[in-house]
Design a protein that fits this description.
Layout: E1 3-8, H1 17-22, E2 25-27, E3 33-35, E4 62-67, H2 86-103, E5 110-112, H3 113-119, H4 145-160
Parallel strand pairs: 1-4, 1-5, 2-4
Antiparallel strand pairs: 2-3
Length: 161
């Protein structure tokens, strides 16, 4: 495994069957981790069809982590009925730090789905908006979200030492 892609489900605070099929790990609204149908190692080879298809054009070698939230998101002023919760976000940062440690993934290889799409415009991930806004941190601008997340993951990595 060589990267982690962070998402939001664009759903409610609990994972549904589709979410469990497409992500390796999901964080519900209370910060509880749910394991998806596939293990991260299933994404080492995505040619057999038995893998978590979370990032169009970027699934091979990628761990998909998603927060169950953001149904109805329209903008920073209208996050819908299920905005990402502070406890959920912190649980996601901590889980990503643990995954970086376990799989020896550099923090620089943790991206949002949005960042992956921007950096890979020839994929179906181009134009995805998860994650462009963090409701618990409204001051963080769209182009700063990924860096903010990586800094928080570094902080959790230091706590694991």
């Amino acid at each position: 495994m060589n990267k982690i892609i962070i998402h939001w489900t664009a759903g409610s605070y609990t994972p549904n069957a589709t979410d469990l099929e497409h992500y390796h790990f999901l964080i519900d609204g209370e910060g509880k981790k749910h394991n998806g149908k596939y293990k991260p190692e299933d994404n080492e080879n995505c040619h057999d069809g038995a893998y978590a298809a979370h990032t169009g054009g970027g699934n091979t070698g990628a761990i998909g982590v998603s927060m169950c939230a953001m149904a109805g998101f329209k903008s920073a002023s209208d996050c819908g009925r299920y905005p990402i919760t502070p406890v959920q976000l912190e649980a996601c940062f901590k889980l990503c730090a643990e995954l970086c440690r376990k799989y020896n993934i550099p923090v620089e290889n943790v991206w949002t789905h949005y960042e992956f799409g921007i950096n890979h415009p020839d994929t179906t991930s181009h134009g995805k908006i998860d994650i462009i806004y963090l409701p618990p941190y409204p001051q963080v601008k769209r182009n700063e979200v990924g860096g903010f997340i990586r800094n928080k993951i570094r902080w959790y990595l230091n706590k694991l030492d």
